[in-house]
Amino acid sequence: MSYKIAFLGCGSMNEAILAGLLAAGVHKTDVIATVRRGERADELAKRYGVTAMATGEESDANQQAVRGASLVIIGVKPIGVTDLAAEIGPVLPHGAVVVSVAAAVSIEQLERALPAGQPVIRTMPNTPARVGRGVVSVSGGTNATREQIDQVKELFANLGLVVEVPEEQVDAVSAVSGSGPAYAFYLAEAMADAGAKLGLDPELSLLLARETVVGAGYMLAEPGADPAALRKAVTSPNGTTERAIATFEERGLPDIIADGARAAAERSRAITRELG
Ligand SMILES: NC(=O)C1=CN([C@@H]2O[C@H](COP(=O)(O)OP(=O)(O)OC[C@H]3O[C@@H](n4cnc5c(N)ncnc54)[C@H](O)[C@@H]3O)[C@@H](O)[C@H]2O)C=CC1
Ligand SMILES: O=C(O)[C@@H]1CCC=N1
């Protein structure tokens, strides 16, 4: 078997990348995916028409998947990354670029688990990649050439915004854009709950909250959009929004968000240390 892109560990994040790339025109016959469970492999095969193998059934599924691959995207949980790298190492094509989407796994940890000289690129994507509105950071490893980094950036540009950052910044990127979609969904959940508490039918309130976050997102997507200016345009002097924002400020919402992001970044650093 010879596939161009092997997705090893195709859960939430790698599925979002897989879907985003297929939607952008990557051909399904150029893609292979591995997962733990057979049912999940069947689901991916059915949903996308790609070849998907389960490690539970074919213990060498990961090795089979990388033979002939030019790009290997590792999408397992951080704890499983280096074992997986060691598993595929012996059969990895020498020039294959190994991309990790895992939080907290350093380039050094990944390089140590792979054959010497293997090109590695550490990324931090987010799930809106599925709809072509993701954010992906890219950091090249010791053996990744400029050309390889640029090729991965070009491929991932199909998923949304691509930024290249020094590795020291990945934990912060993760705390803003990696985890960020969850913050936005959390806001939508809280808005829906708030509307229900004000007497709206919960289903209607959820619909209003969802569409409002979507609509605001579209406005933020316009070139040069400034969130503060857009917020001010909704906030009439002495009107209703002003009271809501004043309440958020009094309750320290910006600090709460900063604390949350700091906790996320600290957790990344702690996982890196735990992985050793
Ligand atoms: N979910 C997200 O929004 C983001 C996740 N990430 C990173 O992506 C990675 C995966 O996270 P999720 O997709 O959320 O987890 P997940 O649990 O949804 O997906 C992991 C997948 O890997 C499979 N798997 C585990 N061990 C395997 C092995 N040895 N061989 C083949 N498949 C194996 C599992 O069956 C599962 O399908 C993590 O390292 C995480 O830090 C990064 C950015 C955002
Ligand atoms: O929660 C996590 O650990 C992963 C990394 C960024 C988003 N999800």
Distance separating the two termini: 34 Å
The CATH C-level class name of the largest domain: Alpha Beta
Order of helices and strands: EHEHEHEHEHEEHEHHHHHH
Count of all domains: 2
Main beta sheet strand tally, sense and closure: 8 strands, mixed
Ligands:
1,4-dihydronicotinamide adenine dinucleotide, (2S)-3,4-dihydro-2H-pyrrole-2-carboxylic acid
Spatially, the strands of the biggest sheet line up as 3-2-1-4-5-6-7-8
List unreliable stretches of 5+ residues. none
The fold-level CATH name of the largest domain is Rossmann fold
**Alpha plus pi helix count:** 12
The count of DSSP E runs of length 2 or more, i.e. the number of strands, is 8
Shape type: elongated
Mean pLDDT: 97
Tell me the strand percentage band: 5-15%
Overall structural class, as computed from helix and strand content, comes to alpha/beta
Helix percentage: 40-55%
Task: Supply Rg.
Answer: 21 Å
Fourth-level CATH superfamily of the largest domain: NAD(P)-binding Rossmann-like Domain
Which CATH architecture of the largest domain? 3-Layer(aba) Sandwich
InterPro entries: 6-PGluconate_DH-like_C_sf (IPR008927), NAD(P)-bd_dom_sf (IPR036291), P5C_Rdtase_cat_N (IPR028939), P5CR-like_CS (IPR053790), P5CR_dimer (IPR029036), Pyrroline-COOH_reductase (IPR000304)
GO molecular function: pyrroline-5-carboxylate reductase activity
Domain Pyrroline-5-carboxylate reductase catalytic N-terminal: 4-103
Pathway: Amino-acid biosynthesis; L-proline biosynthesis; L-proline from L-glutamate 5-semialdehyde: step 1/1
